Amino acid sequence: MAVLIDEKKRVIVQGITGREGQARTKLMLGYGTNVVGGCTPKKGGQEVEGLPVFDTVKEAEAFCRGKHGGPADVSVVFVPAKLVKAAAIEAFEAGVKLVVLVPDRVPVWDAIQIADVAKSHDAHFVGPNTLGIISPGKAVLGMIGGRAESAKAWFKPGKVGVISRSGGMSSSTAYYLGKVGIGLSTICHVGGDSVLGLRFPDVALMFQDDPDTEAIVIFGEIGGSQEEDLAALMKEGRVTKPVVAYIGGKAAKEGTRFSHAGAIIEGGKGTHDGKVKALTEAGATVVTSFGDLPEAALKAIGSN
Amino acid sequence: MARIHEYQAKALLAKHGFQIPRGGPASTPAEAARIAESLGGSVVIKIQAWTTGRKAMGGVVFADTPQQVEDEAKRLLAMTVGNFPVTEVLVEELVPIDQELFVSLALDDAARAPMILLSLVGGSGIEQRAGQVHRLACDPKAGPDEAKLKALIAASEINAKLHDQVAKSVQGVFEVAKTYEARSLEINPLVTTTDGRVIAADCRMTIDDYAVFRHPELGIEIARELDHPPTALERIAYEIEQADHRGTFYFAQLNTKAAEGSKGLVGFHGAGGGGSMMSMDAIMSEGFTIANFTDTSGNPSAAKVYRAARIILSQPGLVGYFGSGSGVASQEQFWSAYGLTKAFLELELNIPAVIRLGGNSEDRAVEVLEDACKDLPAKVEGYRKDDSPRMISQRFAELIAESDAALWQPRDPKLPAFVGTGTSIPINGGKVWIDSASCDTKTTQLVIEQSSGLLKDEGGVPVLAVSEEDAVGKDSEFIACEIELRRAGKPVVYVELDVPGLDELIGAVATIGGGN
Questions:
Q1: How many CB atoms sit inside 10 A of residue B405's CB?
Q2: Which of B135, B179, B278, B333 to mutate to test the interface with A (most CBs of A within 10 A)?
Q3: How far is CA B153 from CA A271, B115, B187, B206, B265, in A?
Q4: What's the pLDDT tens digit per position in A51-64?
Q5: For B282-304, what is each residue's pLDDT tens digit?
Q6: Is A56 on the interface with B (CB under 8 A)?
Q7: A260 is catalytic
Q8: In 3D, which of B337, B319, B321 has the Cα closest to residue B384?
């Protein structure tokens, strides 16, 4: 099993006729994702990769129900940053329960509004600024792995779940785990921004409920409270599977941002030391060098 | 988040109904004195700097006469905070303070909503009084719950006549933050006065970088989180990012000198935020000091990577150049290799470089880099995804230890002689020069082969095969062509790329003796 995405989930693409949308639709299809169609305002009637394009999410959703036997489970959004809010809200209002927001540079007050609307529709979103999600051997959402053949070569199916705050390091973590023989159930890049849809604790709870995931590996970063919140769940006994973590950004000074809007220490909160301490006290294995992560993960699976 | 100064934030508050102390900013002592004179009476003078603890560093002083103000302002305007000079002070009337309160807004990542922190007992050491701080969750549209807010204020010891004004101020913090898309807004202190007013006596505000485009009225020059006003080099880098949106480019200066006992100052070139952070951690644990943070990622053009390398190598005193990102990049890595190679060759790099180019097409990327740079005075080594950050950091340390090169001195790129005389093709932000005079049949053939279909043979010399319009965005392909021709021993193509402002800056650095 896997969380969030598998080969059966019906997927639509918003902004499917754009440069990124077209390219990524092709790659998702190439990997095995069940992409059924997409939409771009005023581009209804066109085709991308042999898939129908509609003007609205509502029409694409109706097509999915009519021709693919059920609702669109997921929408992946590739539209310019300033249009992301409208696109996400359109998807929630059309009834889509999981929306993946790939673009970066989405204003944070837009993300707050997106979260507010998602909540009122009992829906979830990943991102903004996510490279995506991949369940090896099953399906991919977004652009993780780049080319399909690279994604197939780099990520092997198995029983460890990966959650990362860095897109590049999602691939990297998964690849190095694979090199020591660890296969993965799902790799989720939660996004690099400060206000996100699904966060570490949310995805960890999904892995906790997934019978085929035996351990969780996280690539954390300074800033925000995702790692601390995950540690709290572990302390409460709501996440009991082994957690192995690396926290990046030891070198960072307060107030300086290293690309990710979420990776900034503000008001002395979200420090490297604070995160390491919280996770360690909650029983996680925290490695100080990224290179030690695979060995630590091997040990964690062995001890389970 | 982009920062604005206290006086700018206060002006925004005033626009939204807040009372603020009378006064204004000054950038010269004389101007400060004039403001004090027009205010009459005693004043407070505060440095305008992006830092906390201004009082402790002597950046907040009181003065009674315009002459005193002038003297104090002179001293304050000569201060530096970190490496950066103070350029403005704020001169304000003293207000008759009764109580000091605290109100701030932050974005709560767990609640995915704004959060108001409120202390109704006042003081300046808010961190020590955390227990007395109330947290008020905000509705993203409406702000804090009105009834809850009123109940808190009613239970406080604040003069009852001012309760409505305090409540309005708290709601006002939410409104101002929402209007200008602040990431944080803090009024510390919000004071009640003995004459029955509620005044914002200080204000710190940061704006969301990604929303700065919607707020031209704020006049924010660089929408970047920096702990200091932007340096000349950071401004140049930011212009490049704005001019070319293919991939991202981040540049921030962290240190201008190696720390005590450090193995030296390193020019850092990352790819991807997380991978960069992890790589910086690895190089720091080898005992180096990082000069700058740079990130070119998200499928950047070769031109962008080239310009990033030029900017990194505009910092004097480097012992080496270290490039490493996630190591398993989704993008085609040879574009980055071409960009780096071009910069290294024309600057005749003489300090060691270790570059991890792991990810798609890594073999081609490493081959291009190492082969093209093999005759440089310094070792340039490329690595792949199976080479760990720790291993390459250790390798970098070995190369630095072996190297007898002097510290890096910024320099102008060495241009081939045909630049300015040969044939040229305009591209975005530059020109492609072709040394037609040196093109025999065989060379022309080679040029065409390496041109990604952009050039054709006409009368034995290479000319553009596509329209000028189609060629302007092909800077990456032309850079690849230039490097491949150099590797083949036929350097007849050169891509001249502008980095506006960089030549002047390097000239300035050279005249002040390298800044060491």
A1: 16
A2: B278
A3: 33, 17, 17, 27, 53
A4: 999 999 999 999 99
A5: 999 899 999 999 999 878 899 99
A6: no
A7: yes
A8: B337
Going by the DSSP 8-state scheme, the letter that residue B438 receives in this structure is G
Whole-angstrom CA distances from B179 to B105, B108, B185, B217, B218 are: 13, 18, 12, 12, 12
Length of chain B: 516
DSSP B133-168: -EEEEEETTTEE-HHHHHHHHHTS-S-GGGHHHHHH
Provide the residue type at B93 as one letter: E
Nearest-angstrom CA–CA distance, A28 and A34: 8
Distances (CA, A) of A177 to A161, A162, A216, B272: 11, 10, 12, 20
Asked if A221 and B326 touch (Cβ cutoff 8 Å), the reply is: no
pLDDT tens profile B124-170:
555 555 557 899 999 999 999 999 999 999 999 899 999 999 999 99
User: If you ran DSSP here, which 8-state letter would residue B230 be given?
Assistant: P
Indicate yes or no: CB of B183 within 8 angstroms of CB of A194.
Answer: yes
H/E run at residue B511: helix B502-511
**Which tokens go with B360?**
């798609």
Please give the Cα distance from A104 to A210 (Å, whole number): 30
Rounded to whole angstroms, the Cα distance separating A149 from B469 reads 34
Contacts of A222 in chain B (CB under 8 A): 277
- A12: part of which helix (H) or strand (E)? strand A11-14
Distance, in Å, from the CA atom of B286 to the CA atom of B390, rounded to the nearest integer, reads 9
Whose tokens are 């009372």? That residue is B19
Q: Each residue of B335-363: pLDDT tens digit?
A: 999 999 999 999 999 999 999 999 889 99
Mark yes or no for CB contact B277/A165 under 8 Å.
Answer: no
pTM (two decimals): 0.88
Mean pLDDT over the full length of chain B: 91
Contact B445, B457 (CB under 8 A): yes
